[in-house]
Model the fold of this input.
Amino acid sequence: MPERSILITGSGGFLGGTATETLRKAGENVIGTDVNVESELAQKLKLRRLDITNREETLAFIWNNLPETILHFAGISVPKEVANNEALGQKVNVESVMNLLDAVVNARRKYPSYNPVILVAGTVEQFGDPAVEGEVLTEESARNPINHYGRQKQLMAEKFLNRCLKEGIGGYVIIEGQTAGVSPSGEISQKKGFLIPDLASQVAEIEASGRDQGIIVTGELSHQRNIIDLNDAIKAWIEVAKKTPKPGEYIVCAEKSRPLIDVLKILIENSSVVSIVHEIDKSRGSGGTDRFYSPGKIMVATKDWRPEVELEKTIKDVLEFQRRHLVKGNK
Done:
């Protein structure tokens, strides 16, 4: 068999890139992959091209490399993008996972004992309506996804775990809350398109302008989310992969939710700008009334794992990243 390795999909992205960086630093033999290998990050991480939506390409890749562990991060993680193109979301978020399982079963034709551990990304959006009964949410809690993204991920989780059970594959679904932060190297973070980096970039732009006051415009920020640091999330993925507990779903997110307005408050408190005014633009949406929120509820995280990084540090790290990114972009 080929040399022992860890395959990571979506290594050109936020989570996959950080997992690739972290595991390589720990001395692991990581095969980082992405459909786009032309980006700056992909070049830096020396990624190999893999389109996991292409079944034949995925079968050949697994056949030739036989990774011992597969961390599947590739996917569409923005609910609005899934809602705008459900067919693409189905292909990327559901069918691609089945392609990986097909590839493992196919590889057993060459090596019958081949049995990798596979971790795939789930989401708290699978829980859906926060009005479900009970103050504590666990992996066994009722599911009622209320947006297209949550429904696709729930369908994926069910199909994935059923197929893993049938084929005797060690499969895990990591149910994540909102993730933010910066990788250990300081080079990987979300740039735009998500709440925290979007707010941080506005603050960084006001600072860069040299003005002593500015305006931040957002949609509604009255809702709450379970936010965890990027590095805590990756630590949980690695722990599950190494300890291989009973196959199934594992929650990886903050135990308690925080109001989204707290994110803005922390950013303002850590800004060099004398005065920042917050304006709400209702045309930007209601803060996601079709998203999962758990005010007053407790999320029970994966056994033996707890978030360690405080939200304040995560927000400060993202703000500093946006400052550096802004300076770099202006050169």
